[in-house]
Each structure stands twice: as C-alpha cells, then as structure tokens.
Specification:
InterPro entries: Homeodomain-like_sf (IPR009057), Integrase_cat-core (IPR001584), RNaseH-like_sf (IPR012337), RNaseH_sf (IPR036397), Transposase-like_Mu_C (IPR015378). This is Transposase. It comes from Desulfoscipio gibsoniae DSM 7213. This protein is α+β, with helices and mostly antiparallel strands. The protein contains 15 helices and 15 strands. It folds into 4 domains: 70 residues, no CATH class; 42 residues, no CATH class; 173 residues, Ribonuclease H-like superfamily/Ribonuclease H (Nucleotidyltransferase, domain 5); 63 residues, no CATH class. The longest helix is centred in the first third of the chain and has 22 residues. It starts with 17 loop residues before the first helix and ends in a 6-residue tail after the last helix.
C-alpha cells in the first residue's frame, strides 16, 4: 500500500500541541476580524485605527488587551504577505487551557438564559456548573458575565428590539446575505423527504449568486452552495448571516478569512436583521412553491433543476421595486467589471476542508469519523493537524500539506511482507546487548 508523502519537512520531533494550535487559529481569526474593515477599505483608515487602539479587546486565551495602531497595521501587512496563516502567533511551549465558550455552549447558554432572565447571573453560572454544562477551570464566571452582557441578557428585562434603518450597499459584492430555509417536502419512493434551501443574495443588486435545495442543514450543503456562488459571481467583501451552527462553524470562519471576506453575524434572536434574504425566501414560497403544487417533482435533482430555471428566467429578470424598476441581473451586470473573481476554482476545495487534531498511535494509525487511517511511521506518537473532505485526509503543518493519510485495509495489510532480520536469535540478542544465553 502506497502512502503519499510530501517532500516538505516533517514536523519537529515534539509534534503538535493540540491546544496550542487551536488557540493560534482562534487568535488569527480575532486578528482578521480587526483588520477586515481595513482590508476591504470600508472605513476611514485613521479614524478606524484610532477607534480600535482606544478599545479594550477580548482576545481568545489572553483576555482583555489593547493594541496600538502600529500593531494592527503589522497584522494587515502580514495578512497581505502570508494570508491567514500569517496572523497566527508563534507557537508557545505552555499548555494553558482556552477559557472561552464553544459555539454549541454559546447557543445553549443563550437559549437557557432567555428562559431565566429573572435569575441573578451568579446563580445562573452556579447552575451551569452543577448541570455539567461548563467546568469552572475552563469557563470562568467573568467569561459568562461578559458574554451575557454583550448579548444584553444580564438583567431581568427582555432585550429591547434594536432600532432598524433600511440600508443598501451601492456596490455589487460589497455584502452578501445568506441563510437556510425549510423547503418543500417531496414524496420519493413512498416516503416523505424534507428539503432545505440554502441561498446567498447580493445586497446591492438582489441577485442570487447561488442557491440550492439540500436534504439536511449540515455544513456540506453550505459548502457546496458557497463554492458555486463564489465561482459564478465572484468574491464578496462581507457575508452577513445569523447565528446558526453551520454559519458559525470554524470551517466557515477559516474559509472567509482565507478569501479575505469579513464574516458578520446578527445579534441573537434577531432574524429580522437579514431582511433581504428573508424577503427572497418569501418570494420563493409565493412564486415558485406554488408552481410545484400544480406540477409536483419526484426527486431532489428535479426540484433543483426547476428552481434554477425559475431563478434565472423569472426572479433575476423581473423588475424590482427596490431597484427603481430595474432587474437584479441588470444591476449586477452593470458593475461586473469591478468584481473580484476566483482565479483558480480548484483551489476552493482546500479552503473549505474540515479540520481536526489527532494523536497518531504507535502503529502509525488514528481514527477519524469512525474510520481508521494510517500515515507514514515518522508521525507515530505525534499530534497532527488534519484537513479533510470526502476526497481524502491530509496532514498539515504551518498551512502546508506534509502527507496524505489512507484508510486502513486489514486485508491488504495481512498480505504485506515484513522485513526480517538475517541474524539468528542469539546474534540479534547479543547485538542488542544481551548475554546470548
């Protein structure tokens, strides 16, 4: 069995520190969030730097920090030269634990706190510990307090509805909104199958870069839709979405940071903030779903084919009231020369890879999603960074592929010839320092 190994240098003998690498990536994402408005030239440079240098920032692992304008400009330069990996701090030898809430914990704490606004935060925190939802060594009271304060959930009052003002960007691909909505249910083979529509919409032109019905609300569907949207309609400066799990996943954050996209999220329990994508979903229900009642579809592929045809022939070519009677496609094409396009569509595959860390066993194997993989023997006993999708599993170091893992075939391994020593048992024992007896 052949295992592909890059000619790049192998990891150091000490291997990866799983916690350290996770922290480095979170810090890089924080730094990218600071420089993204400068990168996209959407703010006044001097005013923005003055504002950010005067603020206290809550930084993963480090807590509250302030940064000088010079430091922020250094991050900007590093990103332009080295990409996302340039924002990662140098590896540390300490093994301090990350004291923050995971995405799943944040969702749970927000939902639970909304039901218990009458409860003092100190009591609320104690209950989280008693129920085993958080551990005091990993998530401190101050972390919970700051998180709830940011969400406006400290007091007993119900959070106020935020003031809204209508807005629209003047430039195509300045901002895309995205979301998922429950689609029509299909009857296939005597069974009822649920569908979900994942879509992106350009804030300026109301054009839909890409949308697709998928069988589940998992990230794989979002990955397919976003890759097609980028290939077909270019790269936006910002993507605006809600706090759904797939939109807050680290894969989504890494992908946006790698492509120079600023990822923005609405406040919790505030779906109305994404008015344009919600309005597009309502249009689909009233103008497309009704067509399905008169002429039902029998498969997911047929549903998508009919939807894409309707999108291009009806939705994109229908005069829009918010566009002064112009068509979405007309507005988009009027600025097509200013769009930043994807140079290499195949490169997007690596951008959307899933990520994980594993400890390689002494037999050079590790398990991933209930499958057993093997790697070159030099990685045995080390912690490694993995990036993978349905096409394969790759080992990474410093943002570069160093090896490819292959799934273990017990049948093939049973027939692999092992090299045996030509020395007799006594000679081998004596060579290893034995007495030969």
């Amino acid at each position: 069995m052949k295992i592909m190994v890059s000619r790049l240098a192998y990891p150091s003998q000490g291997g990866y520190n799983q916690v350290d690498e996770s922290i480095r990536e979170k810090i890089a994402l924080f730094r990218y969030g600071i420089i993204a408005p400068l990168l996209n030239e959407q703010v006044d440079r001097e005013a923005y730097l003055a504002e950010q240098s005067a603020k206290k920032h809550e930084v993963p692992h480090y807590g509250e920090r302030t940064y000088a304008a010079k430091t922020i400009l250094e991050w900007l330069l590093l990103y332009r030269r080295q990409g996302f990996d340039g924002l990662k701090p140098a590896r540390r030898s300490d093994r301090g634990q990350l004291r923050t809430l995971s995405s799943d914990q944040q969702d749970y704490v927000l939902a639970l706190r909304k039901e218990r606004l009458w409860m003092p935060v100190t009591v609320f925190y104690d209950q989280l510990i008693e129920q085993g939802e958080v551990f005091p060594k990993e998530v401190s009271y101050s972390t919970i307090h700051r998180f709830l304060k940011k969400q406006g959930l400290l007091g007993k009052e119900t959070p106020k509805t935020p003031e809204r003002k209508r807005f629209a960007h003047a430039k195509v691909n300045a901002l895309w909104q995205t979301d998922a909505s429950e689609g029509p249910r299909l009857r296939i083979g005597g069974k009822v199958v649920r569908t979900y529509l994942i879509a992106f919409i350009d804030d300026c032109s109301r054009l839909v870069p890409y949308a697709m019905f998928v069988p589940s609300e998992k990230f794989d569907g979002l990955r397919m839709v976003m890759k097609e949207a980028l290939i077909r309609r270019g790269i936006p400066k910002m993507v605006y979405t809600d706090n759904g799990k797939i939109f807050r996943s680290q894969i989504m954050q890494f992908a946006c940071a790698s492509l120079g996209i600023q990822l923005l999220h609405t406040q919790a329990y505030d779906p109305q903030a994404k008015g344009k994508i919600e309005r597009m979903f309502r249009t689909c229900k009233t103008r497309f779903y009704t067509l399905l009642k008169a002429s039902p579809v029998s498969s997911l592929d047929e549903l998508n084919e009919r939807f894409w045809r309707w999108l291009e022939e009806d939705y994109h070519r229908k005069p829009h009231a918010s566009l002064d009677g112009r068509m979405p496609l007309e507005v988009y094409l009027s600025q097509v020369d200013s769009i930043r396009t994807v140079d290499d569509p195949l490169a997007l595959d690596s951008v959307f890879l899933k990520r994980a860390f594993r400890k390689v066993k002494h037999d050079a194997t590790f398990s991933l999603e209930n499958r057993l993989y093997e790697v070159p023997d030099i990685f045995a006993g080390q912690k490694v960074e993995l990036r993978y999708d349905e096409s394969g599993v790759h080992l990474y170091e410093d943002g570069k592929v160093v090896a490819q893992a292959v799934e273990v075939s017990f049948h093939d391994n049973a027939h692999v010839k092992r090299q045996r020593s030509s020395l007799s048992f006594k000679e081998l024992h004596a060579k290893e320092g034995g007495d030969g007896v």
